[in-house]
């Protein structure tokens, strides 16, 4: 039965019915706090994968514009493949950040609404303090994730332009014209990787604190 509930929950989640999804997960014993930790972990993993993908794309770009030997058509095809993989990675990162935002908003709204249900003022204050601490940590995490995500499009934009240019100008002269762009692209990728690593580190720290016992 639990497996059936979880399968139904997955379908609801994919369909965008988040309210019903959270309710069904709650009945299955999985709370919003657990879902938030899981989604932050998934967002972190997507950024780890994106880091590797953009490093691969930069290396492929370098091989196209700086290595003299080899078939130009093959190198272009490989670069185009890396660009498309980078685009897919970027899409996954955006989707997983959005999923984190959705459950975090639901969690904090529920948490704040339940504060008035306390009869014990000491417990209420403790819960309110924990809510404030968690929300502050989440705000830092989200800012780091969004900062890293914003770095992606400039890198994709450069790759997109170069792939399009090479598609219609696949010759040694065109390759030479793109050599000057490598250093600029490398700078953008390096900054992207640094921002992603900061976001990954913050995600790890957030999940540890979220799952730590109170006190």
TrEMBL record:
Signal peptide: 1-19
Superkingdom as given in the UniProt entry: Bacteria
InterPro entries: DUF2959
Sequence intervals crossing the membrane: none
Pfam families in UniProt: DUF2959
Keywords for this protein: Coiled coil, Signal
Coiled coil: 175-202
Stated name of the protein: DUF2959 domain-containing protein
